[in-house]
Design a protein that fits this description.
This protein is an alpha/beta fold and 317 residues long. Helices cover 19% and strands 22% of the residues. Strands 2-3-4-1-5-10-6-9 form an eight-stranded mixed beta sheet. The protein has a three-stranded parallel beta sheet with strand order 12-11-13. It has a two-stranded antiparallel sheet with strand order 7-8. The radius of gyration is 19 Å and the shape is globular.
């Protein structure tokens, strides 16, 4: 749904009950196995680790809807790792997300062995106070790193999981008048495993809309990547990546790193190669504008793909 659409009318924030979310008690959480948690089954199954910052107003409200899931017996820096759903773990941390530099190096061995994808529910801030739900990969393509990470350093991506999050949010956000979009790659923390943010921007409001909080709380434990998606990196376009958002919603495209037109000004060949290498399964590059394909840093990085190279999606499944 395009940015700037009508927003839902919301009253003060009220945590939803488990019945509001369609759960019964702790039914969302899988039984804890002898290894501390249960893995998802089936081809392409993976483990997700949801990291909740106690200083983030969105993260704490989302986590409130999950209650206190069963403990797995594992810990990260003394904080209990809990089983949120099959293959989805949860940990709460005291500091801001952007300070979780190399959190992957401190994971319990049984969790680290699964090479989990880390998911950060978070507040979205912008100078324009844009109200939206966003999904984005991590890293700093340019020479500045003002909000975590290092300059010209990119975090591995999980393109199909990001597309799954984007679609799940979009399919339920439109009736509520909420905008959903990818954002281009930006900010930290620096990590060695795939990671992405799911954010709620609520502009000048005092609190995030409860409908948006509920959507994020329902989406993250049930991420279901589609193995039919073709994976690519996206190059060009604005920070809110409308072209790549619509491609992922309408076709079987899943994007890893998204390099905005702004980031191309200082893009060097090494960083362009890193964006491609850290997008697992990438088949090539999709460009928002034809002229972006001539950028010298992208020469030889990946083959040029066309919007129509991926089949149309049949809609919500």
């Amino acid at each position: 749904m395009p940015l700037g659409s009508a927003r839902a009318k919301e009253g003060p924030y009220r945590p939803a009950s488990s019945q509001d979310l369609g759960y019964s008690g702790s039914a969302l959480s899988a039984p804890v196995s002898s290894q501390g948690f249960r893995l998802r089954e089936g081809e392409g199954a993976r483990v997700f680790l949801v990291v909740v910052s106690e200083t983030d107003p969105v993260a704490v409200r989302v986590a409130a809807l999950w209650g206190t899931p069963p403990a797995t017996g594992e810990h990260i820096d003394g904080a209990a790792v809990r089983s949120l759903s099959d293959g989805t773990l949860l940990v709460r941390r005291a500091g801001p997300h952007i300070h979780d530099e190399r959190l992957d190096a401190r994971l319990p061995s049984i969790v680290a062995a699964q090479r989990p994808t880390i998911v950060f529910p978070s507040i979205h801030r912008s100078e324009q106070n844009i109200e939206c739900l966003t999904v984005h990969p991590l890293g700093n393509p340019g020479e500045r790193a003002e909000v975590g990470g290092r300059p010209r350093s990119l975090v591995p991506t999980d393109a199909r999981a990001m597309a799954a999050a984007l679609r799940a949010l979009a399919e339920r956000a439109e009736p509520a008048g909420l905008s959903v979009t990818y954002e281009a790659t930006h900010h930290g923390p620096e990590l060695g495993v795939p990671a992405f943010f799911v954010e709620i921007g609520y502009g000048a409001r005092a609190e995030p809309p409860s409908v948006a909080v509920k959507l994020v709380a329902e989406t993250i434990p049930r991420l279901d990547p589609d193995l039919r998606d073709r994976v690519a990196i996206g190059v060009g376009g604005g920070h809110y990546a409308p072209h790549f958002t619509q491609l992922a919603l309408r076709r079987h495209w899943a994007f890893g790193h998204i390099l905005s037109r702004h980031s191309l000004d200082g893009l060097d060949a090494e960083t362009a190669r890193a964006a491609y290498a850290s997008t697992a399964g990438a088949e090539g590059i999709l460009f928002a504008r034809a002229q972006d394909a001539s950028h010298p840093a992208l020469s030889g990085v990946g083959r040029r793909l066309r919007d129509g190279d991926a089949p149309a999606r049949e809609g919500p499944e």
